[in-house]
């Protein structure tokens, strides 16, 4: 039974007490066999992936690190630093010194080692060795992972969530059950190397195939050794988190390293391509700019001026503007675009400035002439111009825009303002001419509208508020993820089945549960703080009239899901309380049955043993006549039969114990089977002894042997056995009856029975001899 109030994360700091990192690696219940097997295989493969760079490897993780040599070599490989020179002696003190050097190096990297000492590593303590390797993995493989301001375990989890988000049937929320079906491993590989895996052919109901496929592809194409067994993961209710994290961190380092190399190569290719493109642009600009000259501009203007005198004024204005526009677009604008594409330090003189100046002079002069001739036409044109701009300036698209979209709108507005400033002189000229003609109102109003319709301060405020919301979203995601993992682990542990065999075990579970309940108020404060972050987002949006675009972009964990899981935890806690109390009552009842049986067994067992010893003494002493002995033995047999109710009562108590499925009893060494054998042997012995006396009486009467002759035989037997050698022989060979347990009472039963038989045999020999 895993202690569910212990946290699963040892990588992050500053967490609340309900998620404290594991530190006591020497606790008996820290690792169950399944988890220890997964960690042993994963950590061994991880160590070998680094040790092979130095031309060596390990086979047994707790044995091969005992002398400290390969441990120091491992640290040198993964850190790139030199450790102090190791001691090459094979004595225990040399091994301890080497391991201490390695532990000191780990501590120098800011890692706090708790309950891990050199002596335990040298002694081959498996749990301590696994704890030390996990500490090394955390420091050198996981701690430096950073994704969107989150680091270590949370950063690795966020990276996995981002990479697997587009894939169906994949929802990475932790480093244990989220990986059992194998789809998450395949999704990571497919996201970076889609040619290696046909993801659409994978089935969620075939986890073993999925896991083996990912492991084999990673080992063959990504140089990631196989660190896990598919059968172990599928066959475990909750795979070991540390083993999964270690293996997934290898994917992170493999893909991030490949991405950096690819980015560098792309940059080099891009620089070369840009240089070649710049050379082509410079050639095209020189060629095109030579065709666009002042003479060409004048010819176009003269040609269109003649058409002004031949056609209606408004149509001429339109034709002139269109001709100039088309010609300018097809030539000068092409030159301008080409020029803008060429870096500033490569541009050719001031050809662009000269060309722009020529066009501006001709274009302005023609427009001024046409304004003077027909102000109505110009006003109409200005109205059309403003109408197009007004649609853009008055729309409130920023109200529902995201932070990135707001920044794009601001850049677009800055470009518009720059363009407006560039045309300001021309607008002023038009206004001056219109003023001279005493019809300036409409034109001036249009100019004022263009300058004032846009309120940049409002959109700037909106951008600031969206940035605040984005920061709150990120804070929510960083705190919601570990809290959600804690709740899932708590729910799983609260629903776990438990099997105990005595009061001490159930009391241990109750103590652990009480400790867990003590953390609930602190956990509830964390939940309220997380919900307060979401409430602050809603408050900012409502106050500023911002329509939120959708859910939190940094996490899929919603406030409602947190409340739902918290409510479930609150319901499961009293259910767990009830189950534990019911089990405690059952164990107390079982303990009462044990004591009740033991009290009777501890009386019946010695009583049977004493009776067997008495029968043995009666068989040897044989005081009085055979008839007196027979009478005495029958009375003795009746007293034994009268004791039967005690045996029956003991059988009844034993039946209650069996019904309660109790298989051990620390209060007595007697078992019901042992007592049954002793009781049956007692009855058999007294019956045989009585039968032998009866046979002796029949033989005596048939042979006519007197009482004095029997007394002589008994004296002779005792003389030859005066040192009790017969009893010594019987004790020496007491295992002759394998069905009787090796106890003192069993020995006495066998000895008394055989001694009586030997005495009877001697008796018959003597009678026949006489």
UniProtKB/TrEMBL annotation:
- Bias class Polar residues marks the residues at 8-18
Q: Where is the Calponin-homology (CH) domain?
A: 37-141, 150-256
Q: Where is this region: Disordered?
A: 1-21
Write the record's keywords in alphabetical order, separated by commas: Actin-binding, Repeat
Per the record, the domain of life is Eukaryota
Molecular function terms from GO:
actin binding
Q: Which PROSITE patterns match?
A: ACTININ_1 (PS00019), ACTININ_2 (PS00020), CH (PS50021)
Q: Would you tell me the protein name for this molecule?
A: Actinin alpha 4
């Amino acid at each position: 039974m895993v202690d569910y109030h212990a946290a699963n994360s040892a990588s992050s700091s500053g967490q609340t007490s309900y998620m404290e990192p594991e530190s006591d690696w020497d606790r008996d219940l820290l690792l169950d066999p399944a988890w220890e097997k997964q960690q042993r295989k994963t950590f061994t493969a991880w160590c070998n992936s680094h040790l092979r760079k130095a031309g060596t490897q390990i086979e047994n993780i707790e044995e091969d690190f005992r002398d400290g040599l390969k441990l120091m070599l491992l640290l040198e490989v993964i850190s790139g630093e030199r450790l102090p020179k190791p001691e090459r002696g094979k004595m225990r003190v040399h091994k301890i010194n080497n391991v201490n050097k390695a532990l000191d190096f780990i501590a120098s990297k800011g890692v706090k080692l708790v309950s891990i000492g050199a002596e335990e590593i040298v002694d081959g303590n498996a749990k301590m060795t696994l704890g030390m390797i996990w500490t090394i993995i955390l420091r050198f493989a996981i701690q430096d992972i950073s994704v969107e301001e989150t680091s270590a375990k949370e950063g690795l989890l966020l990276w996995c969530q981002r990479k697997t988000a587009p894939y169906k049937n994949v929802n990475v929320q932790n480093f244990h059950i989220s990986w059992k079906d194998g789809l998450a491993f395949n999704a990571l590989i497919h996201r970076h190397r889609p040619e290696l895996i046909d993801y659409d052919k994978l089935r969620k109901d075939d986890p073993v195939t999925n896991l083996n496929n990912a492991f084999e592809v990673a080992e063959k194409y990504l140089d990631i050794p196989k660190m896990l067994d598919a059968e172990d993961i599928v066959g475990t209710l909750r795979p070991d988190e540390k083993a999964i994290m270690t293996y997934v961190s290898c994917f992170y380092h493999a893909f991030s390293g490949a991405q950096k190399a690819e980015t560098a190569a792309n940059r080099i290719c891009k620089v070369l391509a840009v240089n070649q493109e710049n050379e082509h642009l410079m050639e095209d600009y020189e060629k095109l700019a030579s065709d666009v000259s002042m003479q060409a501009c004048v010819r176009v203007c003269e040609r269109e001026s003649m058409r002004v005198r031949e056609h209606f004024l408004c149509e001429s204005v339109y034709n002139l503007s269109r001709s100039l526009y088309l010609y300018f677009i097809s030539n000068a604008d092409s030159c301008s675009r080409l020029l803008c594409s060429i870096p500033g330090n490569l541009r050719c003189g001031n050809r662009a400035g000269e060309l722009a100046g020529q066009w501006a002079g001709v274009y302005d002069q023609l427009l001024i002439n046409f304004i003077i001739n027909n102000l109505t036409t110009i006003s109409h044109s200005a109205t059309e111009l403003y109408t197009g701009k007004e649609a853009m300036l008055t729309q409130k698209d920023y109200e529902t825009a995201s932070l990135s979209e707001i920044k794009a709108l601001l850049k677009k507005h800055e470009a518009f303002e720059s363009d407006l400033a560039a045309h300001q002189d021309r607008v002023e000229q038009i206004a001056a001419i219109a003023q001279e003609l005493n019809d300036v109102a409409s034109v001036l109003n249009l100019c004022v509208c263009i300058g004032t319709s846009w309120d940049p301060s409002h959109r700037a405020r909106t951008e600031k508020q969206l940035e605040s919301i984005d920061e709150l979203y990120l804070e929510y995601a960083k705190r919601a993820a570990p809290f959600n993992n804690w709740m899932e682990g708590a729910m799983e542990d609260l629903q776990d089945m438990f099997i105990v065999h005595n009061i001490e075990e159930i009391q241990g579970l109750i103590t652990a549960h009480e400790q867990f309940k003590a953390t609930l108020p602190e956990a509830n404060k964390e939940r309220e703080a997380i919900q307060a972050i979401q409430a602050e987002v809603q408050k900012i949006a409502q106050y500023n009239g911002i329509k939120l675009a959708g859910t939190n972009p940094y996490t899929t964990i919603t406030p409602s899901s947190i409340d739902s899981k918290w409510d479930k935890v609150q319901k499961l806690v009293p259910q767990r309380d009830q189950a534990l109390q019911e089990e405690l009552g059952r164990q107390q009842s079982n303990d009462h049955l044990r004591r009740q049986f033991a009290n009777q067994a501890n009386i019946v067992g010695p009583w049977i043993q004493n009776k067997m010893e008495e029968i043995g003494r009666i068989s040897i002493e044989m005081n009085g006549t055979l008839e007196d002995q027979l009478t005495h033995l029958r009375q003795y047999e009746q007293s034994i039969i009268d004791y039967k109710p005690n045996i029956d009562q003991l059988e009844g108590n034993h039946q209650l114990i069996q019904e309660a499925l109790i298989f051990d009893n620390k209060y007595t060494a007697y078992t019901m089977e042992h007592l049954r054998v002793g009781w049956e042997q007692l009855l058999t012995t007294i019956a045989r002894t009585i039968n032998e006396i009866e046979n002796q009486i029949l033989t005596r009467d048939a042979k006519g042997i007197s009482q004095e002759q029997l007394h002589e035989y008994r004296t002779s037997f005792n003389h030859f056995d005066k040192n009790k050698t017969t009893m010594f022989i019987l004790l020496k060979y007491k295992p002759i009856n394998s069905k009787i347990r090796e106890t003192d009472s069993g020995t006495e039963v066998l000895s008394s029975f055989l001694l009586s038989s030997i005495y009877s045999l001697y008796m018959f020999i003597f009678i026949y001899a006489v």
